[in-house]
Amino acid sequence: MLDTLTQTLNKARAMVEAANTGSWDDVTELQKEYVVLIAQIAATEPGPAQLAQAVTMLEEVQALEAQVNSLASTQKGEVMKKIRAQSHASRATSAYAANTGRKPGLFS
User: Fold this and answer.
1) Which of 46, 33, 42 has its CA nearest to residue 7?
2) CA quadruple 5, 8, 9, 10: dihedral sign
3) Prediction pTM value
């Protein structure tokens, strides 16, 4: 089980690193592998000798996952701002075109 937890920690660290650099496609790919590892952990009980170390490692995994979720939430907010700005610009262009009788476009 500790081997699987180590692999999971490594995936979680890689996800945080990818999220920090804005490599969201990489985060998605790493997350697919991460989910499989989490399922393996969930299906396994640690032995008494491994329990304390397993708990510590799981807490670190949870903290890393929280970092990824926070970074994703921030990114989502930034994307939503860009979408709203683009929508506003599109409406303004359409309104201008409607009022001037021109077709919307850069050089119309």
Assistant:
1) 33
2) positive
3) 0.71
Q: Which residues contact 2 (CB under 8 A, 6 or more apart)?
A: 46, 50, 53, 54, 57
Residues in the chain: 108
For 69, residues 6+ apart whose C-beta sits below 8 A from its C-beta are: none
Task: Catalogue the long-range contacts made by 28-34 (C-beta closer than 8 Å, 24 or more residues apart).
Answer: 34/8
Residues 64, 13: contact at Cβ < 8 Å? Answer: yes
Residue 87 structure tokens: 């929508």
Query: For the segment 42-67, what is each residue's pLDDT rounded down to a tens digit?
Result: 999 888 999 999 999 999 999 999 99
End-to-end CA distance of the chain: 65
Ordered domains of the chain (ranges, CATH):
2-100 (1.20.58.380)
